[in-house]
Amino acid sequence: MDIRFPYSPAEVAKVKCVQFGILSPDEIRQMSVVEIEHSETMLGGKPKTAGLSDPRLGTIDRKLKCETCTANMAECPGHFGHLELAKPMFHIGFMKIVLSVMRCVCFNCSKILVDEDDHKFKQAMRIKNPKSRLKKILDACKNKTKCEGGDEIDVQGQDTEEPKEMHTQISDSEQQELIEKLDIFRIRGRDKRGRTVLRIIGKFFPARIVSVDALRKYLEERIFPEIEKKPFAVLYVHTGTQRCENFPGISAVRSIYDAIPIGVRRNLEAVYFLHPGLQARLFFATFGRFFFTDGVYGKLRYVSRLDYLWEHVRRSEIEVPDFVYDHDEDLEHRPMMDYGLESDHPRVYDAPAVDSPVSTYSMRCIS
Question: In this protein, which residues make up the domain named CRAL-TRIO (predicted)?
């Protein structure tokens, strides 16, 4: 026994198991003794506070004591601090697993692509090793072009044609009035650089009812004239957006983008993308530079939390629906959603983790 450490009267017990996992951001902050804010280690010959050698992390000087446990250099075990990243980051170690899971499920309905009665699927489910099981399920799904629910799969990972004919039974003028009543677009408030903010709520857009022509005409008549003469920023709220209900299609979005006047594009200085899903991030990372011209892609800023949004936008001047606050609170209890390891889809909140048998619904994130 090391005589440098005092005797402990605690009963010696056998270790039954060791479990490895990932600490959530909140757990890291709670366990951390100091937030590192400076890259410098020393200041005036002494450890700099909030630096890489902060005294709360432990001491390497025989003359000093640790400010956390008050022990000397020989007895202090050391304590860890944390860094607050400027933006949320994907854990590169999990990207391959996430993509494999996404390739096993239908993009539209989240169901496993292979029939659960298929012998290959049953064989895979009998495998205890999670990695081997996922690999077998992926092999069973890779040749599927249609899920068992009957939905066609977009093999290329994006819409290549115009969306199916919308069920529009109202005139263009009525569609424009509907857009106005739903309060999808609102020019109000400013960000902290004094720029006017155009707020867009994706969940409010009725893609099955409103045609592309009606939307383009609404923007040209009611939105563009108000923002084409001064710098502005866009706040796009992606919270709760459903691809089948709120997304008009890639071709439709490109058509609307091409209709934006040059003056409006030049005055657009920032796009705040609130609560982006994993597939939205992957799409923009892959096609954003080709899809959007005039440097618009470089102005895109992902915002995973409302607290981060208020660092850029004046909170008192921007109205955000209650469901956005509710979703933001859910994210605090489900931190792995920031890394794409859990779904933001309401149907899969109670789905098991990756290392459990694969269920009917996946951990797919809505794009």
Answer: 178-327
Domain 172-333 in the same topology as domain 19-84? no
Q: How far is CA 128 from CA 83, 85, 125, 360, 361, in A?
A: 37, 37, 8, 18, 19
Kindly report which listed range (9-18, 65-74, 229-238) carries the lowest average pLDDT score. 9-18
Nearest alpha-carbon partner for 251 in 189, 160, 338: 160
Q: What is the CATH number of domain 172-333?
A: 3.40.525.10
User: Beta strands 185-190 and 196-201: pairing type?
Assistant: antiparallel
Give the closest residue to 211 by CA, choosing from 250, 241, 176, 260: 176
User: Would you say 154 and 160 are in contact if contact means Cβ atoms under 8 Å apart?
Assistant: yes
pLDDT, one tens digit per residue, over 104-119 is 887 767 778 888 888 8
Q: Residue 151: its pLDDT value, please?
A: 46
Q: Looking at residue 26, what is its pLDDT? A: 84
Judge if pTM exceeds 0.70.
no
Whole-angstrom Cα distance, residue 226 to residue 204? 21
At the topology level of CATH, where does 19-84 sit?
DNA Excision Repair, Uvrb; Chain A (4.10.860)
328: left (phi over 0), alpha (psi -120 to 50) or beta: alpha
Greatest Cα-to-Cα distance within the chain, rounded to the nearest angstrom: 86
Mean pLDDT over 38-62 rounds to 90
Q: List the domain boundaries for the chain.
A: 19-84, 172-333
- Cβ–Cβ under 8 Å, residues 107 and 146: no
Q: Where are the alpha helices (DSSP H) in the chain?
A: 25-31, 95-102, 119-125, 130-141, 172-182, 212-218, 224-227, 243-246, 250-258, 262-267, 278-291, 306-309, 322-333
Specify the 3-state DSSP secondary structure of 323: helix
CB 187 within 8 A of CB 201: no
Residue range 52-78, pLDDT digits in tens = 999 999 988 888 899 999 999 889 999
